[in-house]
Amino acid sequence: MASKAAARARGAQILAAFRDAGAVEIQPDILQPAEALLDLYGEDIRARAYVTADPIRGEQMLRPDFTVPVVQEHMANGAEPARYCYLGEVFRKQDHRGAARVSEYNQVGYEVFDRAAPEAADAEVFALLAGQLAHLPLTATIGDLGVLSAAISGLETLPARKRALSRHIWRPKRFHGLLMRYSGQAPVPETRAALLAGARSDAPWIGLRSPEEMDARIARLTEDAAAAPIPAQTVAALEALLDLRCPAAEAPARLRAVKLDGLDAAIARIETRLAALEARGVNLKELTFDASHGRTTMEYYDGFVFTLAAEDEDLPPVASGGRYDALTRVLGQGQAIPAVGGVIRPGLLVDLEGGTA
């Protein structure tokens, strides 16, 4: 395993290349306010982050990544367009297939905030990072979470169902469970069936939710139970979409063959992005498109996503990134700008290059 000094030195070389590409170096604080991250990810983030309490500043987290503080800085003070780069440590509790991974490591990253041509910016970030790793035999996988979002938007079902499916794009098991329920392929739990039939408990009221909140919840469940199920053929098409994995150049045609409503604009963006990648010298024959790629990573990615990974599946990706337009709206208090970025793990890169500790 590469030493911190070796990882830092290799990261500095990549950082210099990012500066040469026009990025301004930024260095967010290692201690970050926990509130923003908890608002974004919910309490689940506590299982992955290192949290501490400050008597003045309140709850703080050791920096789990750079994207959130970079977005906060840009939305508060940045000009447009903007390119940023950074190098530093991040901290995450991790466990992978029973084997603990390193929880403190360096990231070197590049972020683009630009309204002019989002797909061109996607290609810029990917090509720049891939170029730094071209000497290694890595597998490149790309995807676009916007395709699944578009497919959900195109469903003929209740808006509440669409919102629930959209919230759980990044939780595949929960998403599948909801899809089975909304299509009538999963049995209704006995307790819910009894509740919908009018059963009520005579026990004293307990819990944090008020009776009014519970009545509203019951009304939503009643509306859902009365709604028509999502047709089986639509569920089959969604599952075919989620299973789609093919050479990148074939992705537009394969996506059109899925026959789901609402995908035309998302497919057009993929075609524009592929052309931009090719224009930057990326060999599309060496890229794999995976429609489910990014569904188990950070939840702020909402469009283009990518990883560059070594053959050993027990290793984390050497590089990863994606588009996070919605995050800028959340952290910009209603203001938004298209944004995309990616990171390289220089310590892992040193190891793969045969570096020594």
Q: How would you describe this structure in keywords?
A:
357 residues; globular; alpha+beta; BirA Bifunctional Protein, domain 2; three-stranded antiparallel sheet; 12 strands; nine-stranded mixed sheet; 14 helices
CATH topology of the domain at 1-119 and 333-357: BirA Bifunctional Protein, domain 2
Indicate the proportion of strand residues. 15-25%
CATH class category label of the domain at 1-119 and 333-357: Alpha Beta
Segments where pLDDT lies below 50 for 5+ residues?
none
Give the helix level as a range of percent.
Answer: 40-55%
Number of beta strands: 12
Query: Topology as H/E string?
Result: HEEHEEHEEHEHHHHHHEHHEEEHEH
Summarize the structure.
The chain has helices at 4-20, 34-41, 67-77, 118-132, 145-153, 159-167, 172-182, 190-196, 211-226, 232-243, 251-256, 264-279, 325-331, 346-352, and strands spanning 24-25, 31-33, 51-54, 58-62, 82-91, 104-113, 139-144, 245-247, 287-290, 304-309, 319-323, 339-344. The protein has 357 residues and is an alpha+beta fold.
